[in-house]
Amino acid sequence: MSRNRTSHYAISPARRRVLRALGAAGALAAAGCAGMAPGRTAKARKAKVVVVGGGPGGATCAKYLRRFAPEVEVTLVEPARRFVTCFGSNWVLGGLRGMAAITHGYDGLRRRGVRVVHDRVTAIDPEARRVRLAGGASLPYDRLVVSPGIDFRWDAIDGAGPEAAELVPHAWKAGPQTVLLRRQIEAMPDGGTVLICPPGNPFRCPPGPYERASLVAHYLKRHKPRAKVLILDAKDKFSKQPLFMDAWKALYGDMIEWIPGSGGGLVHRVDPRTRTVYTEGGLGRHRGDVVNLIPPQKAGALAHAAGLTDGSGWCPVRHDTFESRRIPGVHVIGDASIASPMPKSGHAANTQAKMTAAAIALLLREQTLPAASWVNTCYSLVGPDYGISVA
After folding, report:
1. Is residue 341 part of a domain?
2. In a 3-state reduction of DSSP, which class is residue 119?
Protein backbone atom coordinates (compact mmCIF):
# COMPACT_ATOMS: atom_id res chain seq x y z
CA MET A 1 0.00 0.00 0.00
CA SER A 2 1.31 3.41 -0.92
CA ARG A 3 2.16 5.79 1.90
CA ASN A 4 2.59 9.52 1.89
CA ARG A 5 3.62 11.87 4.67
CA THR A 6 3.28 15.59 4.37
CA SER A 7 3.61 18.59 6.63
CA HIS A 8 0.18 20.18 6.80
CA TYR A 9 -0.32 23.76 5.65
CA ALA A 10 -3.49 25.65 4.87
CA ILE A 11 -3.49 27.57 1.61
CA SER A 12 -2.15 30.93 2.73
CA PRO A 13 -3.15 34.34 1.33
CA ALA A 14 0.32 34.53 -0.29
CA ARG A 15 -0.25 31.24 -2.11
CA ARG A 16 -3.67 32.41 -3.26
CA ARG A 17 -2.02 35.55 -4.64
CA VAL A 18 0.54 33.57 -6.61
CA LEU A 19 -2.15 31.32 -8.03
CA ARG A 20 -4.06 34.41 -9.15
CA ALA A 21 -0.83 35.88 -10.58
CA LEU A 22 -0.08 32.74 -12.53
CA GLY A 23 -3.63 32.77 -13.83
CA ALA A 24 -3.21 36.37 -14.90
CA ALA A 25 0.06 35.50 -16.61
CA GLY A 26 -1.70 32.74 -18.53
CA ALA A 27 -4.34 35.22 -19.58
CA LEU A 28 -1.63 37.18 -21.41
CA ALA A 29 -1.43 34.40 -23.98
CA ALA A 30 -5.18 34.28 -24.44
CA ALA A 31 -5.47 38.05 -24.68
CA GLY A 32 -2.61 38.34 -27.17
CA CYS A 33 -2.16 42.01 -27.96
CA ALA A 34 -5.71 43.01 -27.08
CA GLY A 35 -5.98 46.34 -25.32
CA MET A 36 -2.48 47.55 -26.21
CA ALA A 37 -1.81 50.67 -28.17
CA PRO A 38 -0.64 49.95 -31.74
CA GLY A 39 2.75 51.52 -31.13
CA ARG A 40 3.40 49.25 -28.18
CA THR A 41 2.39 46.21 -30.19
CA ALA A 42 4.85 47.09 -32.94
CA LYS A 43 7.61 47.65 -30.40
CA ALA A 44 6.98 44.29 -28.75
CA ARG A 45 6.86 42.54 -32.12
CA LYS A 46 10.46 43.59 -32.80
CA ALA A 47 11.71 42.61 -29.36
CA LYS A 48 14.34 39.93 -28.84
CA VAL A 49 14.76 37.95 -25.64
CA VAL A 50 17.78 35.70 -25.14
CA VAL A 51 17.64 33.01 -22.46
CA VAL A 52 20.95 31.51 -21.31
CA GLY A 53 20.79 28.07 -19.71
CA GLY A 54 18.50 25.20 -20.67
CA GLY A 55 17.67 23.78 -17.25
CA PRO A 56 14.34 23.97 -15.40
CA GLY A 57 14.56 27.75 -15.13
CA GLY A 58 15.79 28.70 -18.59
CA ALA A 59 13.82 26.14 -20.60
CA THR A 60 10.60 26.96 -18.76
CA CYS A 61 11.13 30.70 -19.21
CA ALA A 62 11.71 30.30 -22.96
CA LYS A 63 8.56 28.19 -23.29
CA TYR A 64 6.37 30.66 -21.41
CA LEU A 65 7.81 33.69 -23.16
CA ARG A 66 6.51 32.19 -26.40
CA ARG A 67 3.20 31.54 -24.73
CA PHE A 68 2.78 34.93 -23.07
CA ALA A 69 4.35 37.03 -25.86
CA PRO A 70 4.16 35.14 -29.17
CA GLU A 71 5.22 38.29 -31.01
CA VAL A 72 8.67 38.22 -29.33
CA GLU A 73 11.69 36.42 -30.82
CA VAL A 74 13.00 34.02 -28.17
CA THR A 75 16.44 32.39 -28.38
CA LEU A 76 17.67 29.77 -25.90
CA VAL A 77 21.44 29.25 -25.61
CA GLU A 78 22.53 25.95 -24.05
CA PRO A 79 25.76 24.01 -24.76
CA ALA A 80 24.32 20.53 -24.12
CA ARG A 81 22.03 18.88 -26.64
CA ARG A 82 20.54 16.70 -23.90
CA PHE A 83 19.82 17.94 -20.39
CA VAL A 84 19.98 15.61 -17.39
CA THR A 85 17.93 16.74 -14.41
CA CYS A 86 19.46 16.62 -10.94
CA PHE A 87 15.99 16.11 -9.50
CA GLY A 88 15.10 12.51 -10.18
CA SER A 89 18.77 11.45 -10.12
CA ASN A 90 18.27 9.92 -6.68
CA TRP A 91 15.75 7.56 -8.29
CA VAL A 92 18.58 6.33 -10.50
CA LEU A 93 20.89 5.84 -7.50
CA GLY A 94 18.17 3.85 -5.75
CA GLY A 95 17.60 1.62 -8.76
CA LEU A 96 14.06 2.90 -9.40
CA ARG A 97 14.76 4.49 -12.81
CA GLY A 98 17.41 4.56 -15.52
CA MET A 99 19.26 7.59 -16.85
CA ALA A 100 16.90 7.86 -19.82
CA ALA A 101 14.09 8.85 -17.43
CA ILE A 102 15.91 12.04 -16.41
CA THR A 103 17.44 12.93 -19.80
CA HIS A 104 15.62 15.43 -22.01
CA GLY A 105 16.08 17.17 -25.36
CA TYR A 106 14.93 20.52 -26.74
CA ASP A 107 12.71 19.56 -29.68
CA GLY A 108 9.61 20.51 -27.69
CA LEU A 109 10.86 24.09 -27.38
CA ARG A 110 11.65 24.25 -31.09
CA ARG A 111 8.09 23.15 -31.86
CA ARG A 112 6.89 26.09 -29.76
CA GLY A 113 8.88 28.54 -31.83
CA VAL A 114 11.96 28.91 -29.62
CA ARG A 115 15.24 29.22 -31.50
CA VAL A 116 17.65 26.84 -29.74
CA VAL A 117 21.38 27.52 -30.13
CA HIS A 118 23.78 24.88 -28.79
CA ASP A 119 26.75 27.02 -27.86
CA ARG A 120 28.38 28.51 -24.77
CA VAL A 121 28.10 32.15 -23.75
CA THR A 122 31.54 33.64 -23.16
CA ALA A 123 30.58 37.23 -22.35
CA ILE A 124 27.64 39.54 -21.76
CA ASP A 125 27.88 43.13 -23.02
CA PRO A 126 25.16 45.04 -21.14
CA GLU A 127 25.96 48.34 -22.87
CA ALA A 128 25.51 46.94 -26.38
CA ARG A 129 22.91 44.44 -25.12
CA ARG A 130 24.58 41.49 -26.77
CA VAL A 131 25.80 38.08 -25.65
CA ARG A 132 28.93 36.63 -27.22
CA LEU A 133 29.22 32.93 -27.98
CA ALA A 134 32.21 30.58 -28.00
CA GLY A 135 31.55 29.83 -31.67
CA GLY A 136 32.19 33.48 -32.57
CA ALA A 137 28.61 34.69 -33.05
CA SER A 138 26.87 37.30 -30.93
CA LEU A 139 23.18 37.69 -30.18
CA PRO A 140 21.40 41.02 -29.59
CA TYR A 141 18.75 41.24 -26.90
CA ASP A 142 16.19 43.64 -25.49
CA ARG A 143 15.89 41.52 -22.36
CA LEU A 144 18.29 38.81 -21.22
CA VAL A 145 17.43 35.92 -18.90
CA VAL A 146 20.35 34.11 -17.27
CA SER A 147 19.76 30.75 -15.57
CA PRO A 148 23.34 29.55 -14.99
CA GLY A 149 22.75 27.03 -12.22
CA ILE A 150 25.47 26.36 -9.67
CA ASP A 151 29.18 25.81 -9.41
CA PHE A 152 31.19 24.45 -6.51
CA ARG A 153 33.37 26.22 -3.96
CA TRP A 154 36.12 23.64 -4.25
CA ASP A 155 38.45 25.59 -1.97
CA ALA A 156 36.06 25.22 0.99
CA ILE A 157 37.21 21.62 1.64
CA ASP A 158 40.89 20.70 1.57
CA GLY A 159 41.49 17.99 -1.03
CA ALA A 160 38.26 18.60 -2.95
CA GLY A 161 38.27 19.54 -6.63
CA PRO A 162 37.19 18.43 -10.09
CA GLU A 163 39.80 15.65 -10.18
CA ALA A 164 38.89 14.45 -6.69
CA ALA A 165 35.25 14.26 -7.80
CA GLU A 166 36.20 11.41 -10.13
CA LEU A 167 36.96 9.36 -7.01
CA VAL A 168 34.53 10.86 -4.48
CA PRO A 169 31.69 12.04 -6.73
CA HIS A 170 29.31 14.85 -5.85
CA ALA A 171 26.62 13.83 -8.38
CA TRP A 172 25.06 17.26 -7.73
CA LYS A 173 25.26 18.03 -11.42
CA ALA A 174 23.55 15.05 -12.97
CA GLY A 175 24.98 13.02 -15.83
CA PRO A 176 28.33 11.18 -15.77
CA GLN A 177 28.65 11.87 -12.04
CA THR A 178 25.32 10.13 -11.40
CA VAL A 179 26.46 7.09 -13.37
CA LEU A 180 29.80 7.03 -11.52
CA LEU A 181 28.17 7.15 -8.08
CA ARG A 182 25.65 4.48 -9.05
CA ARG A 183 28.43 2.14 -10.22
CA GLN A 184 30.41 2.69 -7.02
CA ILE A 185 27.37 1.80 -4.91
CA GLU A 186 26.75 -1.32 -6.99
CA ALA A 187 30.40 -2.40 -6.63
CA MET A 188 30.77 -1.84 -2.87
CA PRO A 189 30.84 -4.87 -0.57
CA ASP A 190 27.96 -5.98 1.59
CA GLY A 191 28.76 -4.64 5.04
CA GLY A 192 30.41 -1.54 3.57
CA THR A 193 29.64 2.12 4.27
CA VAL A 194 28.34 4.92 2.06
CA LEU A 195 29.35 8.36 3.35
CA ILE A 196 27.12 11.24 2.24
CA CYS A 197 28.48 14.70 3.07
CA PRO A 198 25.93 17.52 2.51
CA PRO A 199 27.10 21.16 2.49
CA GLY A 200 25.95 24.10 4.56
CA ASN A 201 23.18 26.41 3.37
CA PRO A 202 22.43 27.74 0.84
CA PHE A 203 22.76 24.99 -1.75
CA ARG A 204 20.82 23.34 -4.57
CA CYS A 205 17.86 21.18 -3.44
CA PRO A 206 18.02 21.29 0.38
CA PRO A 207 16.18 17.95 0.90
CA GLY A 208 18.17 16.22 -1.86
CA PRO A 209 20.99 14.66 0.22
CA TYR A 210 18.45 13.10 2.58
CA GLU A 211 16.29 11.72 -0.21
CA ARG A 212 19.55 10.35 -1.62
CA ALA A 213 20.37 8.65 1.68
CA SER A 214 16.87 7.16 1.71
CA LEU A 215 16.96 5.71 -1.79
CA VAL A 216 20.54 4.47 -1.48
CA ALA A 217 19.39 2.69 1.69
CA HIS A 218 16.49 1.21 -0.30
CA TYR A 219 18.97 -0.26 -2.79
CA LEU A 220 21.29 -1.50 -0.04
CA LYS A 221 18.45 -3.11 1.92
CA ARG A 222 17.62 -5.23 -1.12
CA HIS A 223 21.13 -6.03 -2.35
CA LYS A 224 23.63 -5.39 0.49
CA PRO A 225 21.60 -5.63 3.70
CA ARG A 226 24.60 -5.40 6.06
CA ALA A 227 25.72 -2.05 4.58
CA LYS A 228 25.30 1.35 6.26
CA VAL A 229 24.69 4.95 5.20
CA LEU A 230 26.46 7.59 7.29
CA ILE A 231 25.52 11.25 6.76
CA LEU A 232 28.23 13.70 7.85
CA ASP A 233 26.39 17.01 7.74
CA ALA A 234 27.72 20.56 7.80
CA LYS A 235 24.38 21.63 9.36
CA ASP A 236 22.62 21.01 12.66
CA LYS A 237 19.20 20.65 11.05
CA PHE A 238 17.88 19.96 7.56
CA SER A 239 14.79 20.24 5.38
CA LYS A 240 11.88 17.95 6.34
CA GLN A 241 14.02 16.46 9.10
CA PRO A 242 11.25 14.95 11.30
CA LEU A 243 9.56 13.41 8.25
CA PHE A 244 12.79 11.90 6.96
CA MET A 245 13.81 10.54 10.34
CA ASP A 246 10.42 8.93 10.93
CA ALA A 247 10.63 7.31 7.51
CA TRP A 248 14.20 6.09 8.04
CA LYS A 249 13.24 4.36 11.26
CA ALA A 250 10.14 2.80 9.71
CA LEU A 251 11.79 1.58 6.52
CA TYR A 252 15.46 1.06 7.28
CA GLY A 253 15.87 0.64 11.03
CA ASP A 254 19.42 1.62 11.99
CA MET A 255 20.86 1.49 8.47
CA ILE A 256 21.01 5.33 8.19
CA GLU A 257 22.93 7.41 10.74
CA TRP A 258 23.02 11.23 10.70
CA ILE A 259 25.74 13.26 12.45
CA PRO A 260 25.12 17.05 12.67
CA GLY A 261 27.82 19.65 12.18
CA SER A 262 28.10 20.48 15.87
CA GLY A 263 28.37 16.77 16.67
CA GLY A 264 31.34 16.06 14.42
CA GLY A 265 29.71 16.06 10.99
CA LEU A 266 31.39 19.11 9.42
CA VAL A 267 33.91 17.91 6.81
CA HIS A 268 37.15 19.93 6.58
CA ARG A 269 39.35 17.67 4.48
CA VAL A 270 39.07 14.70 2.13
CA ASP A 271 41.61 12.17 0.91
CA PRO A 272 39.95 10.99 -2.30
CA ARG A 273 42.40 8.13 -2.94
CA THR A 274 41.65 6.42 0.37
CA ARG A 275 38.04 7.67 0.44
CA THR A 276 38.62 9.19 3.88
CA VAL A 277 37.05 12.39 5.20
CA TYR A 278 38.21 14.37 8.21
CA THR A 279 35.89 16.32 10.51
CA GLU A 280 36.15 18.42 13.69
CA GLY A 281 39.21 20.31 12.50
CA GLY A 282 40.82 17.11 11.28
CA LEU A 283 40.38 15.21 14.55
CA GLY A 284 37.49 13.03 13.34
CA ARG A 285 38.22 10.45 10.66
CA HIS A 286 35.74 8.44 8.60
CA ARG A 287 36.52 6.04 5.77
CA GLY A 288 33.84 4.96 3.32
CA ASP A 289 33.62 2.35 0.62
CA VAL A 290 31.73 5.05 -1.28
CA VAL A 291 32.02 8.77 -0.51
CA ASN A 292 29.43 11.18 -1.90
CA LEU A 293 31.02 14.55 -1.11
CA ILE A 294 28.71 17.45 -2.03
CA PRO A 295 30.80 20.65 -1.81
CA PRO A 296 29.54 24.10 -0.79
CA GLN A 297 28.13 26.02 -3.74
CA LYS A 298 27.88 29.36 -5.53
CA ALA A 299 26.22 30.73 -8.64
CA GLY A 300 27.35 29.32 -11.99
CA ALA A 301 30.57 30.59 -13.57
CA LEU A 302 28.86 32.83 -16.13
CA ALA A 303 27.15 34.80 -13.36
CA HIS A 304 30.52 35.59 -11.78
CA ALA A 305 32.18 36.44 -15.09
CA ALA A 306 29.33 38.78 -16.02
CA GLY A 307 29.38 40.65 -12.70
CA LEU A 308 25.93 39.46 -11.62
CA THR A 309 27.03 38.17 -8.19
CA ASP A 310 27.64 39.92 -4.90
CA GLY A 311 29.96 39.02 -2.03
CA SER A 312 27.84 36.00 -1.13
CA GLY A 313 28.64 34.34 -4.45
CA TRP A 314 24.98 34.50 -5.52
CA CYS A 315 22.96 36.95 -7.64
CA PRO A 316 20.86 39.69 -6.01
CA VAL A 317 17.60 40.32 -7.88
CA ARG A 318 14.35 42.26 -7.62
CA HIS A 319 11.77 39.75 -6.48
CA ASP A 320 8.94 41.22 -8.56
CA THR A 321 10.72 40.65 -11.90
CA PHE A 322 13.95 38.80 -11.00
CA GLU A 323 15.81 41.59 -12.78
CA SER A 324 19.39 41.79 -11.59
CA ARG A 325 20.22 44.46 -9.01
CA ARG A 326 23.66 44.64 -10.60
CA ILE A 327 22.92 44.92 -14.33
CA PRO A 328 19.69 46.43 -15.73
CA GLY A 329 17.87 44.48 -18.43
CA VAL A 330 19.25 41.15 -17.21
CA HIS A 331 17.06 38.73 -15.24
CA VAL A 332 18.59 35.95 -13.14
CA ILE A 333 16.43 32.96 -12.23
CA GLY A 334 16.84 29.56 -10.64
CA ASP A 335 19.48 28.34 -8.23
CA ALA A 336 21.88 31.23 -8.94
CA SER A 337 19.47 33.91 -7.71
CA ILE A 338 19.05 35.17 -4.15
CA ALA A 339 15.35 34.43 -3.75
CA SER A 340 15.09 33.78 -0.02
CA PRO A 341 12.87 32.52 1.54
CA MET A 342 12.42 30.43 -1.62
CA PRO A 343 14.85 27.49 -1.63
CA LYS A 344 17.10 26.59 -4.52
CA SER A 345 14.84 23.97 -6.10
CA GLY A 346 13.53 22.90 -9.49
CA HIS A 347 9.99 23.85 -8.49
CA ALA A 348 11.13 27.31 -7.39
CA ALA A 349 13.04 27.78 -10.66
CA ASN A 350 9.94 26.75 -12.62
CA THR A 351 7.76 29.27 -10.75
CA GLN A 352 10.35 32.03 -11.12
CA ALA A 353 10.63 31.30 -14.84
CA LYS A 354 6.88 31.61 -15.43
CA MET A 355 6.55 34.82 -13.45
CA THR A 356 9.67 36.32 -15.05
CA ALA A 357 8.33 35.48 -18.52
CA ALA A 358 5.07 37.23 -17.65
CA ALA A 359 6.95 40.25 -16.27
CA ILE A 360 9.13 40.53 -19.40
CA ALA A 361 6.05 40.33 -21.65
CA LEU A 362 4.49 43.22 -19.72
CA LEU A 363 7.72 45.26 -19.61
CA LEU A 364 8.18 44.94 -23.38
CA ARG A 365 4.60 46.13 -23.85
CA GLU A 366 5.17 48.97 -21.35
CA GLN A 367 2.30 47.72 -19.22
CA THR A 368 1.99 47.86 -15.44
CA LEU A 369 3.30 44.90 -13.50
CA PRO A 370 0.91 43.26 -11.02
CA ALA A 371 2.04 42.52 -7.49
CA ALA A 372 3.87 39.19 -7.61
CA SER A 373 4.04 36.36 -5.13
CA TRP A 374 6.03 33.14 -5.31
CA VAL A 375 5.54 29.52 -4.30
CA ASN A 376 7.56 26.35 -3.78
CA THR A 377 6.49 22.75 -3.24
CA CYS A 378 8.86 19.86 -2.67
CA TYR A 379 8.23 16.12 -2.78
CA SER A 380 10.82 13.56 -1.70
CA LEU A 381 10.80 9.78 -2.01
CA VAL A 382 12.09 7.84 0.96
CA GLY A 383 11.07 4.51 -0.58
CA PRO A 384 9.30 3.36 -3.74
CA ASP A 385 5.86 3.74 -2.13
CA TYR A 386 6.60 6.27 0.62
CA GLY A 387 6.80 9.99 -0.14
CA ILE A 388 6.95 13.15 1.96
CA SER A 389 6.35 16.77 1.03
CA VAL A 390 6.38 20.37 2.19
CA ALA A 391 4.71 23.40 0.64
Report:
1. yes
2. coil
